[in-house]
Amino acid sequence: MILPIFAYGCSTLRQPCTDVQTNDSIVASLIDDMWETMYHANGCGLAAPQIGRNINLFIVDSRGTYEGLEADQRQDFFDENDKGLVETFVNANIVWRSGRVWTDDEGCLSIPGLVLPVTRSWSIKIEYSDQHFVKKSRFFDGLTARMIQHEFDHTRGILHTDYLNSLRKKLVKSKLKRVSKGLVKSAYPMHFSKR
């Protein structure tokens, strides 16, 4: 089922999430709905707070981006053995970030039409459970690591706009206000804060 994506200004996007406690059909159905919602919105990642659920759960598909790049572009965004992934992250925790950082543009389904430069670690180590609640501990690099960090931030109540310096925050303030008031159009259903 395609769910509405919560827009900037909704309080659920600013609340730290609680861990998922049960592996049941409700969680499995929610994960399926998240994948359907994300692909319908042409996204590459989606966190549970973006659909109004304050649980530590997000999904990432960097394989589609990898496959859409030319060979010479891939080496700029992916390490040699990384061909992207399609993965569900339950109760994730980033336990290490590299000192090597890089800046690239990021968008967010909760803030349509606003792409911003964000500096993030090139490499991370993350501990999580997959959709079958199998515990994993893995390293990721490049664009895959960036996507994971972006979605992980959502589970901590952090948005990519939080990384902007004060000048850039002033420059995007009116755009964010328009998003929060529901004055922007998107190609997918959205839920706006009722104030």
UniProtKB/TrEMBL annotation:
It comes from the Bacteria. One of its GO terms (molecular function) is peptide deformylase activity. Keywords: Hydrolase, Iron, Metal-binding, Protein biosynthesis. Binds 1 Fe(2+) ion. Its cofactor is Fe(2+). Fe cation binds at C108, H150, H154. It catalyses: N-terminal N-formyl-L-methionyl-[peptide] + H2O = N-terminal L-methionyl-[peptide] + formate. The keyword Hydrolase applies. The active site is at E151. One of its GO terms (biological process) is translation. Its EC number is 3.5.1.88. Removes the formyl group from the N-terminal Met of newly synthesized proteins. Requires at least a dipeptide for an efficient rate of reaction. N-terminal L-methionine is a prerequisite for activity but the enzyme has broad specificity at other positions. Belongs to the polypeptide deformylase family. This is Peptide deformylase. It comes from Dyadobacter chenwenxiniae.
